[in-house]
Amino acid sequence: MKIYADNAATTKMSSTAKEAMLPYFDIMYGNPSSLYSAGQEAAEALYRARETMAKNLGCEGREIYFTSGGSEADNQAIISAAVLGEKNNKKHIISTAFEHHAVLHTLDKLKKQGYEITLLDVHENGIVLPKEVEAAIREDTCLVTVMYANNEIGTVQPIEEIGKICREKGVLFHTDAVQAAGHLHIDVRKQNIDMLSLSAHKFHGPKGAGVLYVKKGITLTNIIEGGAQERGKRAGTENVPAIVGMAEAFNEACAHIDENAEKLTMLRDKIIAGLLNIPHSVLNGDHIRRLPGNINLCFEGIEGESLLLLLDAKGIMASSGSACTSGSLDPSHVLLAIGRPHEIAHGSLRLSLCEYNTEEEADYIIEKVPEVVEYLRNMSPVWRDLKEGKKSYVIQ
Amino acid sequence: MLYSEKVMDHFTHPRNVGIIENADGIGEVGNAKCGDIMKIYLKIKDGIIDNVKFETFGCGSAIASSSMATEMIKEKPLSEALTLTNKAVAEALDGLPAHKMHCSVLAEEAIKAAIEDYYKKNGIAYDKSRFPDCESCGYCAEGKCK
To answer: Are A370 and A186 in contact (CB under 8 A)?
Structure first.
C-alpha cells in the first residue's frame, strides 16, 4: 500500500485542473500582453481566473494579484505594509512565533532595517488570543500578520476577531492563508482581511502559482520590477497555464469544502484517537480548532527522521518537525513555540490528509505507526532510561 | 535518495542492537536536545572486543553508523578499535550526506567512550589525549550543549 499523507507539503493535481491547463501550453500559448488573438485568448483566461479567485474569496477581481506562490505573496504583503508604515513613521509589526518562514524571515530582514517586531505567544494549544493582539497594538504599529492555519500543527486562528480589532485600530491586517485556502471558508470582507496569501499547490493546483489579495486602496510595493503585468505591481509574463489550473482547482476545492471537511475530520479524529493509544504520545495543537486533515503528534523517546524513513518503507509518506529532516540543528520552531522541549519536538510526526485518502488507509496508518514507534523505542537508550525510571517522562 | 543502499540496509536491519548485561565498558555520547544519543556496550576478553551492542536515539544515519561501527570493531583488539575513525565508518557506509557526517563522529566517540570506561573501571593506565571530549554535535560547537 502507498499512502500519501503529506498534503500540507503539497498535493496531487486535480485532474479537472490539469485538463484545464493543457490548452494553454500549446494551443492558446500567446503572451497575455500581446494584441493578436492568441495573446488575447490568454488574457481572457487570466481574466476569468482572476474573477474565479475573487468570487471564492469574497472580493473583486482587481484586488487579486497573481504571484509565483505563497512565499512571494507573503514577502510582498509584508514589505508593502512596512513601506506604507515608514511613510507615517510607523515601524512596528505584530506577528506570531509560529508563522511560516516566508513571514518570519521577511520580518527578520525588516528588523535589521530598523523595524520593531513583536511575536505573540501562541500558547500550548497553538492559538493566538485576540485580546493579546489588541494589547500589542501601538501608535506606531503598521501591520498585524497572523497565519490563518498553521502549516505544521494545523491550528486555526481567530482571523475574523483579529481582523475586527485591526480594522477598529486602523492597522493593516495580513494573513498567510496558504494552509487554509480551499480547505476552510474564506470571506475577506466579512473577516476584515486587508491582505491574504495563498498557494495553488496546497489545494490540488499546480506548483508555481499563488495569489496575493490586497484590499483596494492599499498601495503595493514591487518585489519584482519590470513590465506592467498585474497592474504594474508584479512584473514578468504571467504563468498562464498554472494560473488557469489554480483557479480551476480553487473553484473545485471551494465547492466541496464542507463535504471534504466532514470526511477528513472523521478520518483525522479516527487516526488521532488510534495513535494516542501509543503510550507517552501527545497531540500537538488544539484538538478541535485545527485543519480537518491535520494530525501532529509527538512520541517520547524516538527521533522523527528514523520514524519517517521506516514509515516510508511501509508505504506511508509523512513529515516530521525533527531537526534531522531539515538539516538544521533545532527542531521545528512551531513545536518549540507551543512549549514542547527539544527532545520531544525531535520525535514528532505530521500526517496531513486530503479527500483522496480513505478509511482503509487510516486503518493501515493506525496499525503501522505503533509498530514503528515500538521498534525504534526498543533500540533507544532514551526510552530505556525512561522505562527504568532513570529519567522521568515528559509526556505522561 | 538521501542515503546509500548500505546506509538503508544498516538502518533497516541494524546489527548488534541491544544491551550487554554486566558490560565491561559502556560509552554514551550525544544529547537528546540535539536529537542524537548513542550508547555502546562492550564485553572485553584478553584485550579483544568479545561482544559489542548498541542503543541509539537518532536519525537513520545515526542508527546506520552505530550498526556499521559495531561491526567494524567486533572481535578486534582494543588497540585496533581505538584507531577507528568516523571517516572509515562513513566510507564503509558508502558515504553519508554532508550534514549527517556528525553521526559517524558520534559512533567513533561512543566507542572511544566505552573503551575509556573499561580502562577506568579496571584501573588500566591510558593516554587521555586519545579520548577527546564530545565535540561532534553542532550544539556543542555553538556552545548550546549545556
So the answer is: no
Task: Express each pLDDT in B81-136 by its tens digit.
Answer: 999 999 999 999 999 998 899 899 999 999 999 999 999 999 998 888 778 665 54
* Backbone φ, ψ for residue A264 (5° rounding): -65, -40
Number of neighbouring beta carbons within 10 Å of residue A215: 17
Mutate to test the interface with B, among A346, A383, A388, A393 (most CBs of B within 10 A): A346
**Which of B17, B19, B99 lies at the smallest CB-CB distance from A327?**
B99
Distance from the A110 Cα atom to the nearest Cα atom in chain B, whole angstroms: 26
Residue B134 is predicted with a pLDDT of 56
β-bridge mates for residue A373, sequence order? none
Minimal CA separation from B60 to chain A, in Å: 5
Integer Cα distance of B60 and A278 in angstroms: 22
CB pairs under 8 A between A and B: 73
φ, ψ of residue A234 to 5 degrees: the values are -155, 100
3-state secondary structure (DSSP) of residue A262:
helix
Residue B140 at interface with chain A, using a CB cutoff of 8 Å: no
Output the CA torsion sign for A284, A285, A287, A292.
negative
Report the C-alpha gap between A372 and A41 in whole angstroms: 53
Contact (CB<8Å) A382/B32: yes
3-state secondary structure of A372: helix
Residue A195 and residue A93 in contact, taking contact as beta carbons nearer than 8 Å: no
Of B111, B23, B17, B70, the closest CA to residue A376 belongs to: B17
Torsional class of A336: left (φ above 0), alpha (ψ -120 to 50), beta (otherwise):
alpha
| Cβ-nearest to B35 among A310, A324, A379 | A324
Parallel/antiparallel/unpaired status of strands A294-299 and A116-120? unpaired
Gap between the terminal Cα atoms of chain B:
34
> Where residue B145 falls among pLDDT bands split at 50, 70, 90?
very low
Residue with cell 494589547: A135
Residue pair B47/B78 in contact (Cβ under 8 Å)? The answer is yes
Distance from C-alpha of A348 to C-alpha of A335, rounded to nearest angstrom: 9
Residue B67's Cβ-side half-sphere holds a number of Cα atoms within 13 Å equal to 21
* Interface check B9 vs A, CB under 8 A: no
Question: pLDDT tens across A43-98, in order?
Answer: 999 999 999 999 999 999 999 999 999 999 999 999 999 999 999 999 999 999 99
Distances (CA, A) of A135 to A162, A171, A213, A365, B144: 11, 13, 27, 43, 33
- Note whether B14 contacts A343, CB cutoff 8 Å: no
| HEC-encoded secondary structure of A185-206 | CCCCCCCCCCEEEEEHHHCCCC
What is this model's ipTM?
Answer: 0.90
Tens digits of residue pLDDT in A288-320: 999 999 999 999 999 999 999 999 999 999 999
A343/B17 CB distance under 8 A: no
Whole-angstrom Cα distance, residue A142 to residue B36? 43
